[in-house]
Amino acid sequence: MNQVTLRVWDDDACARVHRASLTLLERTGIEMKDDRARELCAAAGASVEGRRVRLPAALVEDAVASAPRSWTLRPRGGETAPLELRDGGGYFGSGPDCLYVTDSETGRRRRAVLADVEAAARVAEALPNVDFVMSMALPDDVANEVVDVVQFGAMLRGTRKPIVVSSPFGGETLYTMHAMAAAAGEAGSFACLAMSSPPLMLDDVCCSKALACAELDVPLVLAPSVSAGAQGPASLSACVAVANAEVLAGLVVHQLGKAGAPFVMGVGTGVMNMQSAVEVYNSPGVFLGNQAQLDLIRWYGLPSWHYAGHSDSKTLDEQWALEVGIATIMGALSRATLLHDVGYLESGLQSALEGLVLGDEVAGYARALLAELPVDDEALALTEVEAVGPGGNHLGTKMTRRRFRDFWRASLIDQTTYDRWSAAGGLTLLERVRARLAEILAADPAFTLDDETRRTLDRLSSGAETA
Question: What local confidence, expressed as pLDDT, does residue 274 receive?
Fold first, then answer.
């Protein structure tokens, strides 16, 4: 199709990196810290010595072949369309579990609380280009042992859009979340993020999540986080090979749990700032390494997980706006399936509702950029050009009246004349973003759960009922 996209590696490069990952899995192996996962691998023909699991290439290839190429993630009502988890897609969403938030009233950085989770979900519900929801905050006012299910309940109260959860615990709480999502209208409306432990390890939390997701048919999103020069070699290509090996090992466990269970393959090739020891988000090396890994995922034909709409800035300044734009456009051009972390600041430590609002605007811009540009007779419009002729204009033609609304129009990005901008108050981008956020927060919620459903969610999240 005639569409803009990004690509780093061709098919030959992807095949070579795949073989390198297979070599790592077969020779070096994976440290697998879960008894059941190791037992499943051993029964399937893997070599197991203590916690070290060496996976034969055939076992890995079988897992890649058994994972579905598409899966539907459904909303819980409303006008939100289902998310088709497949190669491509380009769905934007918020991010999980920031320790800090930018307070939308004071503008100050503070610790996150539970109300921030529901507020972020409510704002996301109102934004047309935010397609799925994550917590955006790790609440400081919730007991650690129930934080994941309480977060999930807050998101269910704030939005009908699909949710991606990120629990610090194993798979046991996913059964409760499954029951909560069913009570709210759709059990199949959420996915679960898990992460490998670089280099070349899968901890018990990751394996437990993988097996629970497989049993429940909850899509597992498995992402690595290999950093060049730290958990991986000081080579982006080598880091991709290591990260890919980790995710393939997780896929093996997942598919041994249940063949054909839905799986989304994540990216995560980092480049640490060695001066500050910060794992930055908006580095050229990060974008390059992640895009190479996305090329590899596309070579497998699997759905993918990537980043968009984030910043390393500590506050809502010019760096923030610049990096949100860069990250969102780069994410969109990658053609990844799910693009998360819209609204992140401070390299993932902080979130801001203003980031969601600006990210929504840039995501709309990006989607217009991704549109197909055909070259058929209608698109070339030679008859139209000939009818107007040299020196004419097309302002009054039927084609212009019919099609001019098809072009993207800004709602927050200013594209007026200076006089009109000045007459409207001369507002900066941040002032316009905050005005839009205030409108959303002041409006009646787009929906509310009925009292009985809310009581059911409260009982489930408190452990008073079992899944």
Answer: 83
Residue 9, amino acid: W
pLDDT band at residue 283 using 50, 70 and 90 as cut-offs: very high
pLDDT exceeds cutoff 70 at 402: yes
Identity of the amino acid at 449: L
Using an 8 Å Cβ cutoff, are 453 and 180 in contact?
A: no
Minimal CA–CA distance to 44: which of 251, 297, 261? 251
Q: What's the rounded mean pLDDT across residues 161-167?
A: 96
Q: Find the mean pLDDT for residues 200-223.
A: 98
Per-residue pLDDT tens digits for 351-375? 999 999 999 999 999 999 999 999 9
pLDDT of residue 79: 82
> Distance (Å, rounded) from C-alpha 267 to C-alpha 305?
6
**What does the alpha-carbon distance between residue 94 and residue 96 come to, in Å, rounded to a whole number?**
7
Burial class (CB in 10 A: 0-12, 13-18, 19+), 319: middle
- Confidence band, pLDDT 50/70/90 cuts, at residue 154: very high
3-state per-residue secondary structure call for the chain = CCCCCCCCCCHHHHHHHHHHHHHHHHHHCEEECCHHHHHHHHHCCCEEECCEEECCHHHHHHHHHHCCCEEEECCCCCCCCCEEEECCCCEEECCCCCCEEECCCCCCEEECCHHHHHHHHHHHHHCCCCCEECCCCCCCCCCHHHHHHHHHHHHHHHCCCCEEECCCCCCHHHHHHHHHHHHCCCCCCEEEEEECECCCEECHHHHHHHHHHHHHCCCEEEECCEEECCCECCCHHHHHHHHHHHHHHHHHHHHHHCCCCCEEEECCEEEEECCCCEECCCCHHHHHHHHHHHHHHHHHCCCEEEECCCCCCCCCCHHHHHHHHHHHHHHHHCCCCEEECCCEEHHHCEEEHHHHHHHHHHHHHHHHHCCCCCCCHHHHCHHHHHHHCCCCCCCCCHHHHHHHHHCCCCCCCCCCCHHHHHHCCCCCHHHHHHHHHHHHHHCCCCCCCCHHHHHHHHHHHHCCCCC
Query: Measured between alpha carbons, how far apart are the two ends of the chain, in Å?
Result: 46
pLDDT tens-digit series, residues 54-88: 999 999 999 999 999 999 999 998 888 899 999 98
188: which residues sit within 8 A by CB, 6+ positions away?
A: 72, 73, 74, 181, 217, 218
Domains, the chain, ordered by start: 65-369 (3.20.20.480), 377-406 (no CATH)
pTM, full prediction: 0.95
User: Is the predicted pLDDT of residue 464 greater than 60, yes or no?
Assistant: no
